[in-house]
Amino acid sequence: MNKNISTIKGDIYGAIIAAIIAFPQALAFGVASGMGAGAGLWGAVILSLVAGILGCNLPLISGPTGPCAIITAVIVASVAGNINLVIPILLLAAIFQIIISMTEIPRMIKYVPYPVISGFLTGIGLIIIILQISPILGGTTYSSTIQALASYPNLILNINPHSAILGVITLIILFCTPKIISKYIPVQLLSLVIMTGIAYYMGLDVEKVSGITFSLPQAYFPEFSYEIITKYLPTALTLAFIATSESLLTGIIMDSLTKIKHNSKRLVASQGIGNIFCAITGSMYGSAATMRSVAAVKTGATTRLSSILCSLILVFVMLKLTGFISQIPICVLAAILIKIGYDILDLKVIKVLKYAPKDDLYVLIGVLLLTVFYNLVFALGIGIVLSAILYAKRIADNTNIKENIYNPTDYTPFETKIERESHYKIRILHIDGQFFFGSITQIVSHFDELLETEYIILNYSSNTELDMSAIFALEDIIIRLASQKIKLFLVIPNEKVYNQIKSLDVISQIGKNSLYTDENSAIHDAIIQTHLENLYE
Which residue has the higher pLDDT, 144 or 243? Predict the structure, then answer.
């Protein structure tokens, strides 16, 4: 009984925090998408409610997100804002999501190379930032990055000083608020309330949010045509793919936080059904949102009840805060979006740029530029194809034809003997084959199965350097093992790969003394440390 009460209490607290974070984001994404702030809020309400009822029993808070907002903005711009043409495209994307959930694709998306994901997400972040510079300075909101960049010279000559001041102060609050404050009050909500109050009481001449509808959203009956299906099929597929990927990524993060494995097919299906309801009500398309879901878990949420409660809280906020919402300056929302765009940028990749293979850099930069300046769909397709071609070339370049005579020795029995005699406190693992984006999932998941282990000797004998995916996978392995209080000894016989790993930041997490070129040395040190621990016990 007490456990049930504690669970419900945690879900309520988690829902409140998630709603506080979702509110300014949904408003901002709705405006950025071109569908309006009301569509953003109702999208958060409907998707979180439907996905919460039908989805996995995890606190997955759903709603509009940055990548979905940008693709939706492209759709809205391509049909000149005609909602009757937007609806069937969004509905088509939602149907694709449900179809995807019936296939093995939810399990295969994790094989998309890291440089493609990194380039795409960084491109999305840059698009958000570029498009919001104009409204933060009091200018027009554009749907194209090229148009936005071309407008900058004229924008500088016609800056609205009130918008610029509000926007800059909002950015300062967003980036500089001490963690001791943001820990208790989400910084986006804090900046929204403070800056809206300042704009209202000082009577500043700035554009405000408009077009909010707080009655139940209107039902639309989409009219499909051959032209819509053929012309917008790639865009609908891209939206479905991005929403699915983002939801699955959030699900993986939830797994690590809650220690509960989610059903990926059910997760995607619930999101698709929720997006169908969003589409036919003219609300914004969305996905499971990582930031909101993590915040809910950190506050105590453990079940899907938090997602359902979050949507109900948002409805209450809309009904009770109509006057406040109508006074929110567009420049403040633009500043919030710029911060969100900055958070989407994959800045952690910078620390490995000089160590990563050039092939990865070519893919990352290519996807990034195509995403920002050309076409989102084309960027993803080219990135995946280019990664496959370059990987095939990399494998071919490292393939040597030579005679290899197999001579069995007592080496494997020796390793088995070490594991048995240490009561499996010491385990010796070999990575056979290439440690690359296609193999990291199996390798990382293997470390969830190791029980009673105190030392792992990981032997990677390939002569192929680690790509970006492998570098971050290695970092994930180290973090996972550290959380399980398992000491890692890394054995890298190849000099080129050894020097690469030695120069990475991740090595500081296990210590340079834990990096070896010879497995026997690692085994010797592990045995000594095991004996020492036994003596102290």
Answer: 243
511 backbone φψ class: left, alpha, beta (φ>0; ψ -120 to 50): left
For the chain, percent of residues with pLDDT exceeding 70: 84
Give the number of other CB atoms < 10 A from CB of residue 496.
10
Tokens standing for residue 154: 């004229």
All structural domains of the chain, each given as residue ranges with its CATH number in brackets, are: 2-386 (no CATH), 411-536 (3.30.750.24)
92: its two tokens? 């088509």
Helical ranges in 79-141 per DSSP H: 83-101, 105-108, 114-136
- Cα–Cα distance between 361 and 357 in angstroms, integer? 7
173, 198, 232 from 66: Cα distances, Å: 21, 27, 20
Q: Name the strand (E) or helix (H) holding 459.
A: strand 455-460
Residue 352 sits at the vertex; the CA angle it makes with 289 and 525, to the nearest 5 degrees, is 105
b/e 120-147 (16+ beta carbons within 10 angstroms → b) = bbbbbbbbbbbbbbbbbbbbebbbbbee
Label residue 259 exposed, middle or buried (CB < 10 Å: 0-12, 13-18, 19+).
Answer: exposed
With 0-12 / 13-18 / 19 or more C-beta atoms within 10 angstroms meaning exposed / middle / buried, residue 357 is buried
* Beta pairing, strands 426-431 & 287-288: unpaired
Q: What is the pLDDT of residues 325-339, one digit of tens each?
A: 778 888 888 888 888
Alpha helices in 345-467 (DSSP H): 358-373, 376-397, 411-421, 440-446
What is the residue-averaged pLDDT of the chain?
79
The C-alpha angle with vertex 364 and arms to 101 and 512, in degrees rounded to 5, equals: 100
Sorted by sequence, the CB contacts under 8 Å of residue 435 that are 6+ apart come out as 443, 460, 462, 464, 466, 470, 473, 474
455-460 and 426-431 beta bridge pairing: parallel
Q: Answer yes or no: are the C-beta atoms of 426 and 454 closer than 8 Å.
A: yes
3-state class percentages of the chain: helix first, strand second, coil last, to nearest 5: 70, 5, 25
Residues 492, 488: Cα–Cα separation, whole Å: 13
- CA dist 444 to 437, 447, 449, 462, 493, Å? 11, 6, 10, 17, 21
Q: Are 254 and 110 in contact (CB under 8 A)?
A: no
Burial label, 485 (beta-carbon count in 10 A; 0-12, 13-18, 19+): exposed
**Sign of the CA dihedral running 49, 249, 482, 412:** positive
Cβ atoms of 36 and 351 within 8 Å: the answer is: no
Contacts of 258 (CB under 8 A, 6+ apart): 58, 59, 297, 302
How far is CA 339 from its chain centroid? 15
- Tell me the C-alpha to C-alpha distance, in Å, between residue 233 and each of 21, 90, 533: 33, 10, 62
Estimate to the nearest angstrom the gap between the alpha carbon of 325 and the chain centroid.
28
pLDDT single digits (tens) 79-99 = 888 888 899 999 999 999 999
pTM above 0.85, yes or no: no
Containing H/E element for 429? strand 426-431
